Amino acid sequence: MCTVCGCNDPSAHGHEHDRPHGLHHHAVGAVHGHHHNYGDGPAGLSVSGFTQERLIEIERDILSGNDDDAAVNRARLAEHGVLALNLVSSPGAGKTTLLVETINALDGSLQVAVIEGDQETANDADRIRACGVPAVQINTGRGCHLDAHMVGHALDELPLDAGSVVFIENVGNLVCPAAFDLGEAFKVVVLSVTEGDDKPLKYPDMFAAANLMLLTKIDLLPHVDFDPERALEYARRVNPAIGEFRLSARTGVGMAAWLDWIARRTHGVSFALEG
Ligand code: MG
Fold this sequence. Notes:
Layout: E1 29-31, E2 34-36, H1 52-80, E3 83-89, H2 95-106, E4 112-118, H3 123-129, E5 135-139, H4 148-155, E6 165-169, E7 186-192, H5 199-202, H6 204-209, E8 212-216, H7 228-238, E9 243-246, H8 255-266
Parallel strand pairs: 3-6, 3-7, 4-5, 4-6, 7-8, 8-9
Antiparallel strand pairs: 1-2
Helix pairs in contact: 1-4
This protein binds magnesium ion.
The site of magnesium ion (MG) has 4 residues, from helix 2.
C-alpha cells in the first residue's frame, strides 16, 4: 500500500518527500535465503523513520479523504444512471487493448466513455478516441494510482448519459490501486496468462478488493505455463465471491460473456453482482 508514501498528498509526511516511490516497496523479500516480512506489524508495512502508529494515522487520513470523494462520485454516477468499472492490473496485462476491443465489439450498442490513468503520455486516451468514444487522460506523474478526486474532475468532462458505461483504466500496478475507491460500481482485475498464475496469492489485496477477474490473452495459453484453474483457485482463496471470465481480446474468444456481463449491469442500472 502506498498511502503512507505521500504520492497521494505531498504534505502527509510533514516534510518534503523526494525519494523515488519504489524505494518504499523494496523491503519485503528474501535476502541470503532468509524470509524478511515487513508487513507483520499492525500497519501492514514498514517505512523507515515512522512508527506503526504514525503509519496507521497517515493512512487513515489519506483514505478517509479519498473515501469522501469516492462517495460523491458514486452518488453522481448513480444519479445519472452510469455504470463505472475500475480496471486494475499490472502494466502490460492488456487493459487498453481489452478496452479497444470491447468498444469495437459493443459497436455502439452501449454508450461508452473512458478515463485513462498513466504516469505519463496520452497514448492510451489517443487509442480510445481513435475508436470514436470520448476519453480523458489523467497523468499521475510519480503517483502510482488514480484517486477519487482525480476521477471526479475527469467525470466533469464526460457526457454521463443514462445507461452508459464509464471505464476507468487505472495506473498499471497491482498494489496501490487496491486501496483507493474511485466511486466505481465494480473493480475488475485483469490478469494475463503471460504473468504468473500465483499473482492472486502474491498480491492478495487487489484480488480481495476486486469483484471480477478477467484472465486475458488466453490465445497464448499453449505457449506459457500459466494454469487458469490454479489462478482461479488462488483468487478464490483470497476472495471466494470473485467472478471470472477467460478471454482473448485479440482473437475475440470469450469476449461475449464479458460484454454480456457489462450489458446486464447497465440495463435498468442494476448493479447487483450475479457472478
Ligand atoms: Mg493502458
